[in-house]
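Page 42, continued from yesterday. The earlier attempt failed because a stray header line got pasted into the input along with the sequence. Redoing it now with the clean sequence only.
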Amino acid sequence: MLTGIAFYLFSAVLIGAALMVIASRNPVHSVLFLILAFFNAAALFILLGAEFLALILLIVYVGAVAVLFLFVVMMLDIEFAELKRGALQYLPFGGLVGVILAAELVLVGIGALVPNAGSLVPHATPGHLTNTEALGRVLYTDYVYYFETAGLILFVAMIGAIVLTLRHKPGVRRQKIALQNARDPKLAIELVDVQPGQGGA
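This time it went through. Structure tokens are written below.
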């Protein structure tokens, strides 16, 4: 009963947060709703017995959202003084999100303490394998080509982001590797036979 209530609560909050990500006009609110959606998705993974996926979701995606928010702030050239002045108006909204996350963590903790709370929920892994081992076997056998394709796409996206945000400042002397490699050592080094007593001349 408790597991079912937690599942429906996390699912409802996840769907509502996902809708508010695209419905909110304020980008700060959208980022906060996206973090809330990630937390609820991680809670659903924990209910299914996939703790590794839940931790990866929190570590990677929540961290990536923070980096994305910083990247957007830098690209929009927002005045940090103005941003600090307007931070207090987001305090009630951030407090509401924090209270929801705290309540969900309490429910997950209570569900973990209750014996046989997850007996009715099908487990995502076989009984003789750990969650990480089962995920690795499926990911690197049946879906290895999709995994490599996703890595290649992310690598190209990273290069594209670097190229788009790279700015060359005028008047800055830069290293020219081709000219350095093509330089003749005979022109770069001069051997001088200094005789005794001529060093100070």
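Notes: The chain has two domains: 1-81+93-124, 125-166.
Reminder to self: strip header lines before submitting.
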